Amino acid sequence: MNNNKRYEGLDIIYEDDYLLAINKPSGIHSAMLPGEKGGESIAEILCNIDDSFVEASSKAEDCGLVNRLDFETSGILVAAKEKKAWIETRANVLAESVYKEYLCLTEGNLREEIEVDNYIGTPARRSDKVKVYKRKPRKKDRALPAKTLFSPVSYISNWGLTLVRVEISTGRRHQIRAHAAFAGYPLAGDDLYGSSVVLSEVIKKPAPKFFLHSYKMKFLHPHTKELITLEAPVPEPFREICEGVV
Q1: Which of 143, 150, 169, 193 could form a disulfide bond with 119, CB atoms 3.0-4.6 angstroms apart?
Q2: Per-domain residue ranges of the chain
């Protein structure tokens, strides 16, 4: 946890004059739309700390965030402190030139590497879930290309779950969750995408609904052009099973 009282309550894993990186816990929003209800968000916390975050991004509600994570997903969130840093880092995200690795727990025994490169779309506006297309969709389907690489790390036999390393360059909404389910290995506890287990009951410890953690990110710094590598420690109660992996 960062010792800077300015960011009290946030786990800061990187900071310079232009960027701030946070290890987001599960159970909090990255950002919320104006008027949306449902609790606190990281963006709101940043807005209350410094107006520079508000001024950095094109939308005030983003408060400088260049990426987002789902409510239940933990890990790396990057925020820019000024507009040039936001524009360039956000452009890298959209251009798929940011390297991202995640860890997750899936149902079943994933024995070999799987790559899923099916399009993802949201046919109905405000839909709670996304659709994975078996074939290239029509324009009206509002779908985008997405590629996800799933690599098994270890099978935890007493849980019946597999610890999986995930690599993505695209960052579509629910991409990892939807592609995992499409491949037949839904994230354990993710009932929206077909999981039939309750994660806390399986591991016999208090736990978030599912385990999906953004633990590594690499991208070029918007000012120095040097390669930045960010890593976010794995939260409890999953730290022990991830020892030696991160």
Answers
A1: 143
A2: 1-95+217-237, 99-210
- Is 187:70 a contact under the CB 8 Å cutoff? no
Whether 99-210 and 1-95+217-237 are alike in CATH topology: the answer is yes
The reported pLDDT for the residue numbered 80 is: 95
Side-chain half-sphere exposure of 20, counting CA atoms within 13 A: 24
Amino acid at 209: K
- 1-95+217-237 folds as Pseudouridine synthase (3.30.2350)
* Residue showing tokens 């590497």: 113
Residues 6+ apart with CB under 8 A from 245: 103, 153, 163, 165
Q: Beta strands of 99-141 (E only): which ranges?
A: 99-107, 114-116, 120-121, 131-132
Task: Determine the length of the chain.
Answer: 246
CB 19 within 8 A of CB 78: yes
In a 3-state reduction of DSSP, which class is residue 181?
helix
Domain 99-210 indexed as CATH 3.50.30.20: no
User: Which residues does residue 116 pair with via DSSP β-bridges, in sequence order?
Assistant: 148
What pLDDT does residue 32 have?
78
Count of alpha carbons within 13 Å of 232, Cβ hemisphere only?
29
Backbone phi and psi for residue 156, each to the nearest 5 degrees, phi listed first = -100, 95
Q: Are 88 and 42 contacting, i.e. CB atoms less than 8 angstroms apart?
A: no
The one-letter code for the residue type at 94 is: L
pTM, entire model: 0.92
Q: Which of 134, 129, 109 is nearest to 119 (CA)?
A: 134
pLDDT recorded at residue 36: 62
